[in-house]
Amino acid sequence: MKLDTTPSGFALSISGRQILAHSAAAPCFFVGQGNDSIEMHRGRFAIEGRLAERCPLAHAKIDGDTIMLSAAKGQPPRLAVTLEGKALELRSLDSSVNRFWLRVMADRDEHVWGGGEQFSYFDLRGRRFPLWSSEPGVGRDKTTEITFKADAAGQAGGDYYHTNYPQPTYISSARYALHVETSAYSVLDFREGEFHEIEVWSVPESIELFAAPSFVALVETLSARFGRQPPLPEWIYNGAIIGLKDGANSFARLATMRAAGVKVSGLWCEDWVGIRPTAFGARLFWDWKANETRYPGLRQRIAELNDQGIRFLGYVNPYLCNDGVLFEEAENAGYFVKDASGQTALIDFGEFHCGTVDFTNPDAAAWFSEEIIGKRMLDYGLSGWMADFGEYLPVDVRLASGIDARLAHNLWPTLWAEVNAKAVASRGRTGEAVFFMRSGFTGVQKWCPWLWAGDQSVDFSRHDGLVTVICAALSSGLLGNAYHHSDIGGYTSLFGNLRTPELMMRWSEMAAFTPVMRSHEGNRPRDNLQLDGDPAVLEHFARMTAIYVHLSPYLRTLSLEAARRGLPIQRPLFLHHEDDRRTYGIQDCYLYGRDLLVAPVWQAAQDQRSLYLPSGTDWIHVWTGKSFAGGQEISVAAPLGRPPAFYRADSEFEALFAGLRQV
Amino acid sequence: MKLDTTPSGFALSISGRQILAHSAAAPCFFVGQGNDSIEMHRGRFAIEGRLAERCPLAHAKIDGDTIMLSAAKGQPPRLAVTLEGKALELRSLDSSVNRFWLRVMADRDEHVWGGGEQFSYFDLRGRRFPLWSSEPGVGRDKTTEITFKADAAGQAGGDYYHTNYPQPTYISSARYALHVETSAYSVLDFREGEFHEIEVWSVPESIELFAAPSFVALVETLSARFGRQPPLPEWIYNGAIIGLKDGANSFARLATMRAAGVKVSGLWCEDWVGIRPTAFGARLFWDWKANETRYPGLRQRIAELNDQGIRFLGYVNPYLCNDGVLFEEAENAGYFVKDASGQTALIDFGEFHCGTVDFTNPDAAAWFSEEIIGKRMLDYGLSGWMADFGEYLPVDVRLASGIDARLAHNLWPTLWAEVNAKAVASRGRTGEAVFFMRSGFTGVQKWCPWLWAGDQSVDFSRHDGLVTVICAALSSGLLGNAYHHSDIGGYTSLFGNLRTPELMMRWSEMAAFTPVMRSHEGNRPRDNLQLDGDPAVLEHFARMTAIYVHLSPYLRTLSLEAARRGLPIQRPLFLHHEDDRRTYGIQDCYLYGRDLLVAPVWQAAQDQRSLYLPSGTDWIHVWTGKSFAGGQEISVAAPLGRPPAFYRADSEFEALFAGLRQV
Q1: Beta strands in A383-483, from DSSP E residues, in sequence order
Q2: Per the domain annotation, does B340 fall within a domain?
Q3: N or C terminus of chain A: which is more exposed, having fewer CB within 10 Å?
């Protein structure tokens, strides 16, 4: 990083790329004051900012590695910026300041990616969006009927930028990355031609900069910064994790599926804790212990499954329902987040209310890790679980550590991941027992072994369907989350939106080329098609699990590479083709490792799929063996069962890939 | 107005009411810089502001009647504020400034009204909304199916604050009014408890303040400021203006309606210029001359109507279609608004394109007045017309006067009104020939004799139906627009939304108690019920015209009062009951003059209506003669044909009102 003084200011560059250019006429730092209204209803936040001041810090005084910034010469400095290694440490010198803006130099043809897990747009240029963990919305597109109905039913429709996992970090096509170290509400604005603007509702601790000669090296660097996940457990290579929530009947259904040829690595019963019927569908009973009524003799059942090479997985989240037994224990110990009056803050989850265990209280976090996850889950025999939610912390609560809930809100997913990871580590099972999360924030990479893409609608829609999972994998993958997967068939069935056999099959086809194949019955299992509800769907799924297992030697190599270098399993095409700018905007295809290119069919009623093959190599079509030169747009037949996939002609796994034709 | 210095600033009050309180810690003036993107599509504007600076002007230096404001002591002044009579004249001292904010002191229980013609909310406290003339939207409520469909079909749904006629003027329950003299995009923010905030995308010319001991006196003062309209023409008291656009057949249909007992003052044929079929419905041919094919022998027909005491009215707007003959004449004379390349700027009106006559060019304005309105309309025999549109000036055009189109946009409705008014005056027919407009802005009061409420949907919806017309009449009326009326039955029929007999009847009932009864066939006449399409509807309408005529002595008195004092015909309840705060939020009832209280039934399937009767008098129910004490909520029977209406027990028109029972 290099700081140069200029006639009326300074310039900052990293590895030859100019990042900041400050002059009195065009300052790059701004501070100010504002207030806000942030209201939460069922994980959706109505956020409104009211700005009182935005002051360009026009005057810079440079003293060694520190820049003192003020509104004008002779005015008191309001912000100190100190170069510390590859970061700009920021210090507010004015206690009234609670708003911060930074303008970063941009090129007109620059692309930017990242922002956490983004579902709608991979290349974020041209957009301005907030970073605030929340429900992602149902429909997420104001032009669709489902979004309209979800909005009308309770402002639940969402928009393109809503995500369970935001992160104020981006990668630029100019081969640098920028991370804002803050948990405050922030906004990335990539709409302007000449600059990007970062807005933070607080003075951030620092701005970190990363540069590298290649995208691969840049991603490795970010992964080292944010933390790496352990390799996949060996048992996953046995096949898919089958999600059933049918009580004891789940075991019989699993047996039927296996008899139909489905290769299985795990049985995931989120209803292991019992259920609660609601208008949204059957919900779970949030009191985190095995429900012996719904699953009689479960420990014995788990042991029998294990003997067959199949693990049992469950479900947990950071809330405790106030009609469960754990609620009283936690409340007596003072472990819950409090409201303004000092009472346990109850959160409405839709027909039931919960306390939030206060993870800023080390005793409460340790209690959750040990008493719930350790004893009731791991010791009980679980090898994994969905660690759900994490997005619902309101801003009007009081926390044990004294941190402002506005700053704690985005931290919650990472704290929640840590609670889970420490429980797994306490039993020495890191890398062998797993959990998967939808929420996230900066640092979740270090604790959470797998992301899952949250709750898609059970359809092919552009902003809430199958295709959004690819964007989510690519954006989060660039920021150091190597493992991503999704609910096969999607989750949310509302307003008459129902799964079709075609959707189930297309989703299975994609999932076979992701690190984890996992099915889900969805929010309304009885109304919706299940994998075992249609022989053709089941047969197709069985073959996809065989494909997944066939590819396991390759996947194992990718997993070891991820642990060593931090490269995600699913990668944007540009990661290995950075000189081919035509790849920069692609978000409906991905590389599965370096050597496989996967182009899922993500629209209904398609028997062909068009895609662009990156230049620099020839590509072999998996199902025909036909070779295509890179650097061209092609169209291939894509009937059900033949998801468009290609391997590099020079791959060392060529024989394995060629073998797919026989699976 | 009184300016006091305080330890670190100043305080400004008017008639004892403190309006501004400035200190270094809490300044009330702010300036800054920003840019914007304002894109127009068919009268709907996508407006996006991007703020670079908002500087509190913390330091005030007072020199006689001038306040010099700067960011801090020792910094150069950026704004000069000079007290001139009842205004604060503003002068920017910094050419980079293009944003302005003012904080006005507020009381927590204060109510505010005005903002031009507002359709959804009369009391604007708690809201923040822009002032920019535009299409008001179809549905105007994101929770309704129609709004969703209009948005999906082209972002045409709108929101509560969209209006053809904005005006940066408000009246406070603290008995003062504030007007911002600017035509720039501005925002009124009434959300805060302690202050109101005014935002302007320019430094306004001045802030005008008005105070009075009573609301009546305040409204009189505003009317004197903005201009008054002539009294209603005598011919209007003959009955309703019947809107038909059925070519020559219109005359036969009028005869049928008259035979059914309908009292008629005018026949309004907007299709007098010929029609153009489009997907929206039959549109008119925008080339402003009588169409002899559609209306053979029209001059003769008009003369015959006049002999029967019936006037003929037409239609005009400020655009000329590029497939008409006037277009070439105007283009050759250089009368059109130009695009960036200096060519005639063509505006898309949906399947056809038009030039906009440049009213900042005095020759073009005079040409439109004389050649089109004077010769082709007034001299032809028209006694009135709808002077439609005025909201469509884009901001990327060049104007003859050199004014920035961003500043001209909101001025356009007033310029358009002036063109019409001058044409009427040129023939000595002011107050006898009339026109009615939906668009408006500051100063339209001086030129436009009647407002009409624009294009409601043909339904009872909360934000786009019958009830919105009341809010529009009350808000615009307070700002000096004495005459307001609406399309009986509404206008916009889209997405299967069709007029019902009940809607037609409820709308007729309300219109009988407004200064002008005028029907409209709507945008899709053939799909929708017309007044003469159902004998029950026609009979009901005939009776309502008789009620209107019966009330004409009272209406004439109100009209003379309006000319003399500026009081609107339709008034909020609080205007004559200012000590009864329960009236301050009422927007679904109105006073018709001082003596009648009208509570239209504005929802479907109602046979009762609840309302609040203001205190201070007894109220006599028009249809039963029953007396009710003021100061209470009551419910009365409201079957079709008996719109809830009450008169003051002490009215000098008591006999006239009592006579309504026999009509």
Answers
A1: 384-387, 434-437, 450-452
A2: no
A3: C
